[in-house]
Amino acid sequence: MLLVCPATAFSEAPSRPQPPTLESCQERFAAWPDGRDAAMCFYQCAQEASAREAVTRALTALEARHPDQGWLPLVLGHVRMLSSHKAAEAPYRRAAETFHRLRQAEGEVLAAINLRAILLAQGRAEEARQWTRRVVEVASTSGLPDLRARALMVEASHLYEVELDLGRAFRVLKRAEPLVFPEGTEGMKKQYLSVMGTVSERLGRLDEASDINARLVELTRSTGDLFLEAHGRFTLANLALRRLEREHVLSDRGRALALARQALAAAERTGNTTLVARAARLTADLLGDSPEEHREADVLLARCLALPETPESQELRLSCLWTRAERRAGVDPAGAIQDSEASLRLASERNDPLYLALALRGRGTVAYRTQPLPEALAHAERAVDALEALRQTQSDASSQAELFATWARDYHRLAGWTLEAGGATGRAHTLSPRAALSRTFAVSERLRARTLLDALVASRALVDAEDTPERRAQRSEVQSRLVAVQRRLLDPLLTGAGRDAALKELQELERRERDLRPVPRQGALEFASLDAVEQGLEEDEALLVFLVGDDVDLTGTSAGGAWVLVVTRAGTRVHRIPERTRLAAAATLFSGLVERRDGSELGAAVALHAQLLGPALAGLPATVRRLLLVPDGPLHDLPFAALREHREGAPLVARYELGVVPSASLWRHWRGDAPPTLGGEALVLADPEWVLGHGESRSASAARSGIFEEAALLGALPEARREGFGVEEALRDTHMAPRLWVGPEASERALKDADLSRVRVLHMAAHAVVDAEAPERSALVLTPGTEEEDGILQPREISRLRLNGALVVLSACSSASGAVLPGEGVLSLSRAFFEAGARAVVASLWPLRDAEAADLMERFYRHLATGMSVSAALRAAQLEASDAGLPPAAWAGLVVLGDAGLVATAPREEAAPLSGLDPALLMAAALVVLLALGFIARGRWRGGRAPAATRGAAARRR
């Protein structure tokens, strides 16, 4: 009988090559019995389920006649893998041993990779680990680049599947990428895209994962690989669901459902029951609540749960159970509880914190809809505990933050449910209101700025003790190479292939540098309790803690909502505020209107004040003068200073000093430090300048894509130089000795070499470049100082400055903004200075105009020099700017981060006496000052319109 793999399986892709017949594969093998391609022909034929039995018999017979042909058992393993993992184990083992005996490294690596995957699916992790080591050893010994690439992919798979270390897995895959693209085989490319798509998804990089899986689907369609096409389509649909959960654009639900149906159709073409079950569960998860959709979902979930109960199917069965439980909650409470409990038992048996957290999330949802609220709270709290365990599997802080961000909504949900249990929503309380507030506050602290808290509170000595001299030397060598590459990238004349090559080298060095960092240690962290914070606040302070979640999730279950906790010495209150999606739109609109500088933001300022602050401020004790704000989500970039109660009224900063803290625990950490002693130094760096590699000095700013091109062509900042002299003058009669570096003196090398232990104020008036997509490339732009520096001071370098509780003032654009990770907060330049030991940072949410920045800083330091706290001095400066007629865009973006109550200096008790000086000299000096002030007044923009000469690129701090 002539057996043909049916063409209907390929009908969606007219360009896909027609499948071979079994007879043609047998003829091809007879002609080339030792070749790999001849054996692989059988796998192409077996893509359709109806062909597999005949293909299996043919391969088994050929293997018996050709015992030294390792490709035959390997392909037989591929064919059996389409239907059953367990059935594929034996042929893969035979293939691996045959190739090992014949010393054929490529075949041995491929067989070992597939065998490892089967063992892992069966829960045989130790055996899988041994085969992972074997793959790496054989590939390394072979010296073949394509085998090295495959070994790196296996190593990455082991890291994320067994050790759950997604960050390291991602970086290992990036090392494999240049070995796979563009010269690798199609099989290697499919393997790479499959693994990288999964890792990117689990890290929460949804857009990147979508692009990768779209490439995978396209590649599999052109090569006729139904199995991987189904996998790619499933992942695309799952990503659409994740994006729907994150962004809450309900109109996207139909698109996600359509993708799930496509994934189900692709899975059915493979005949693989596991792929079909996965796609069926996902489709059921996206169906609505109509009777027809309920019936369809029941059929799909029955298919999913019809899988045999084996170790390989355990993961899928537990997800099918929690999906069915959530769908049954509204119609069959007892059945929903039974399903969710069964899912939880399976997850507990797996001992995997990821699936335990997912199962507990589902169990909590079912309990909320079917049982008393305390039962739901118990499961939601356990889910958060599982997330904490998952977080600790990551070997670097960045991966911890990325992974944690994907689970922020679980913390918002727990916080909202806890407040509901305390009666905050009007529901009869099952917790005392005080207990609910205390527990909600604790959940909030577990959510926020965790990696920064770890860096500041955990023992640095403990970290350094495990950091060997060899690793430190390797990091130093990598850092030197990073500088050299970045110096090349800063040359605007570098174009084309040279720039592409340098960027690839930079990416590899950045990954290497991150791998060489000490493993983060959590230490014995103690989060701030509500009682402790209330007791630590002064009578004139209030802490406003924002929790910005969604009102409901995709199932219609409460997602926690959005709240503000108002904490004072006298106690704590809570108020409901608009949910995340509404606030995100309102905050974005407000910031855009502020940027217009025409007063059009007043209506939005009043609305946001009423929504966020109205009830909160109305109940504050009359003694409160300072608000400490703990923002969340879209509120990180909101200029609170410009909000106002009435259109004609004064801005918020007229009533209160304002400070921003990442979390109450960090505020308590800074507040608990001993107050700085008077004295020390103020180090001022202003208007750094440099000469580029091709010998041309900077003359004008330019907005270019990429931070290196942008930094290379930034213009000089003449007003920043004036600002530096003004800071020096303002601090001259204080207990602090100012030291000013301008122009070429304001260098990266000088700053790194300086003894900063006595520095109480570090002021930097310079350009900043911010890369929201790659936050660790953001930088302050300084003079290089030596050939060993590049002049761009980046977070990894800032964090090593070893500041000693200093106030850092970043008179630079967007130095308080950057990528926002849910929970972790803003990955800004300011954050790096806290890691270096700063106690407070003054920075900007948006770009600054050079002259306006200089004027605002002159006002700020004039007040700081009188002994005011940082927040009081900034408030006074902002009020002066507002009273002078400047729009909020000129002053409201400057914020105090950290310890807003820090007093950095005070005036000396006795100023230098003027008696004894020649009166004529005094008159002459006064005349010189008056003339200078007149000259400056003509060249500066003080409110209103700026003279045309001050406009242009060089007048804006980047």
Automatic annotation (TrEMBL):
Domain CHAT: 605-899
Name used for this protein in its record: CHAT domain-containing protein
Organism: Myxococcus fulvus (strain ATCC BAA-855 / HW-1)
SUPFAM superfamilies per the UniProt record, alphabetical: TPR-like
Transmembrane residue ranges: 920-937
Lineage of source species: Bacteria, Pseudomonadati, Myxococcota, Myxococcia, Myxococcales
Keyword terms, alphabetized: Membrane, Transmembrane, Transmembrane helix
Matching Pfam families: CHAT
InterPro entries recorded: CHAT_dom (IPR024983), TPR-like_helical_dom_sf (IPR011990)
